[in-house]
Write a structure and sequence with these properties.
By secondary structure, the chain is an alpha/beta fold. Helices cover 53% and strands 12% of the residues.
């Protein structure tokens, strides 16, 4: 396996997806390798079907552990269908969310426990952790205010959860950053979008200087 696997993480409203739309072409211009963008939950046909069930606004009776298992199941399918074949082809895979999302949202946010959620995810990912994770840090207050002003009507089931839930998600992310200093780089997401993109791209170049060395 010689591709590069980079995941992007952060609380709701961190602007991660928007930033990723600009980070991917910036990286692509700096390397001769192909850059592939994917996302979770989803990223492949079966995983996208699971995504619909998890994020359904009507699914209010979903059990917390069912939710955690569905995320892990979608992740397994995404890994097998997209991530591993991409890495095997020596490409660069950028994933909008991966296992840290489950630890933060289900482990911390839903209070299932980080250990328990890590355990079911270890089964799903079978040792395939990202080479690098970029974490977009934003406080829950700022993140939620951004979402509410952006798309009041289109909020999904998780975005509608309480401020306390989002505070626990944020705290768990900070703990993950602390516990994984070699893998996770934290970026300040509460600054101008172009600076967020620049910080992320700089962190990636710094980690893989031989890959992003001027490119095509
Ligand atoms: P999405 O619309 O993709 O939002 P975002 O742009 O914030 O990534 O919705 C994904 C939601 O699912 C988001 O609220 C985070 C949540 N989530 C989990 O709770 N656990 C997980 O393992 C993953 C991958 C996502």
């Amino acid at each position: 396996m010689s591709g590069i696997f980079i995941s992007f993480e952060g609380p709701d409203g961190a602007g991660k997806t928007t930033a990723l739309n600009r980070i991917a072409p910036a990286l692509d211009a700096l390397t001769s390798s192909e850059v592939v963008v994917s996302r979770e939950p989803g990223g492949s046909p079966i995983a996208e079907e699971i995504r619909k069930i998890i994020l359904d606004i009507h699914g209010t009776e979903m059990d917390d552990r069912t939710e955690a298992l569905l995320y892990a199941a979608a992740r397994r399918q995404h890994l097998v269908d997209v991530i591993l074949p991409t890495l095997e082809a020596n490409k660069i895979l950028l994933s909008d969310r991966f296992v840290d999302s489950s630890i933060a949202y289900q482990g911390g946010g839903r209070e299932i426990g980080t250990r328990e959620v890590k355990d079911i995810n270890d089964f799903a990912i079978d040792g395939h952790l990202p080479d690098l994770t970029i974490y977009f840090d934003i406080t829950p207050e700022v993140g939620l205010a951004r979402i509410r002003s952006d798309h009041q009507e289109a909020m999904d089931r998780l975005e509608k959860a309480s401020l306390d839930f989002h505070k626990r998600v944020h705290d768990t992310y900070l703990q993950l950053v602390k516990d994984n200093p070699q893998r996770i780089v934290s970026i300040n997401a509460d600054q101008a979008p172009e600076l967020v993109v620049k910080d992320a791209v700089d962190a990636i170049i710094k980690r893989f200087p031989d890959v992003f060395n001027g490119g095509k």
